[in-house]
Specification:
heterodimer, A: alpha/beta, Elongation Factor Tu (Ef-tu), domain 3, Rossmann fold, 2 domains, six-stranded antiparallel beta sheet, 6 helices, B: mainly beta, five-stranded antiparallel beta sheet, about 35% strand
């Protein structure tokens, strides 16, 4: 019994960095080879632990950017006063090792067997787990219709823009730019409001399932807005991240 | 203070309990609201993991770790 329990216990392990890609000036995707990766589900995250020479450790939780079955990838936004993200976005190199544990989380997870229309609402780098969900939909050849509303400061801050714009049938992507809009911008401008949600979101009577990820205040606004549109609270799954990115 | 949610504690819970807990439904002893642990309010704190009720903000779960020993206090869970 004890042996079984120990095996199930989540432990830290060492991964190798196999690739890095700059997504925006402050955001980088890191692809990892994880020797004992048990597989993950779309929307899950993992914890990263950095250890300084003096033994000081810092842990942060990051959403997994890749779909189940793809190599594990993290997309990390640099926070200028962060303890972990500057290292991940600037110092980490291909061939380096990284300590992690995961996958973790069973709440903010999309199962491809769920046939409900999907509403995905992202604030900034909150798009990362939602991208994993969209990729999982594509890999499973699911025909669940998807609407993605992505709030970003500027167009240059949009992560995965080429990929998101390449999706066609069944996936509708809307952007709203909160800080600045380029000349001729035909998308939305300003923060997500109940009116914008009413315009973009599936009507509640279609039985949609919503995933909302972003900074805490963003998630509160969107989740309240969706409940106001008649979404049952248990059909609005939320994940909030803070400036510290950790607990 | 900017708060997070119970998803941020998924790794710690998995380490302590040996399985995912974020989808586990708990009931607040103070106000009776039921919520999944992933939806609780988490206050960033390097010394302890603190999950509070999203409705009444009372303390639900407190986890401290020192020298590899975890102490879980579910004092606010009915």
């Amino acid at each position: 019994m004890e042996g079984t329990a120990v095996q199930r216990r989540l432990t830290w392990q060492v991964a190798n960095v196999t690739a890095t890609v700059s997504e925006t000036p402050s955001v980088r995707t890191i692809t990892l080879a994880v020797p004992d990766w048990p597989g993950h589900r779309a929307g899950q995250h993992l914890d990263v632990r950095l250890t300084a020479d003096d033994g000081y450790t810092a842990e942060r939780s990051y959403s997994i950017a890749s779909a189940p079955g793809e190599p594990v990838a993290l997309t990390v936004e640099r926070l200028d006063d962060g303890e972990v993200s500057p290292y991940l976005t600037e110092d980490l190199r291909v061939g380096d090792q990284l300590e992690l544990r995961g996958p973790v989380g069973g709440y903010f997870v999309w199962e491809p067997t769920d046939m409900a229309p999907l509403l995905l609402v992202a604030g900034g780098s909150g798009v990362v787990p939602l991208r994993a969900i969209v990729r999982e939909r594509q890999r499973r050849r699911s025909d669940v219709p998807v609407r993605l509303l992505y709030s970003s400061r500027t167009l240059a801050d949009v992560i995965y823009r080429d990929e998101l714009d390449s999706y066609g049938d069944g996936i509708s992507v809307s952007y709203t730019l909160t800080r600045a809009q380029p000349p001729g911008w035909t998308g939305h401008a300003g923060r997500v409001t109940p009116a914008l949600l009413a315009e973009v979101a599936w009507p509640a009577h279609e039985g949609p399932l919503a995933f909302v990820c972003g900074p805490t205040s963003f998630v509160e606004t969107v989740a309240e807005g969706l409940v106001g549109l008649g979404y049952p609270a248990d059909r609005v799954k939320t994940e909030r991240f803070g400036a510290s990115g950790g607990r | 203070m900017e708060t997070l949610d119970g998803n941020a504690l998924a790794g710690l819970f998995a380490e302590v309990f040996g399985e995912d807990m974020t989808n586990t439904v708990i009931t607040c002893r103070t106000c009776g609201t039921t919520q999944v642990i992933g939806e609780t309010v988490v206050y960033p704190n390097p010394m302890a993991a603190i999950a509070r009720c999203r409705t009444c903000t009372q303390l639900l779960i407190l986890i401290t770790q020192i020298h590899g020993v975890s102490c879980v206090d579910m004092l606010g869970v009915a």
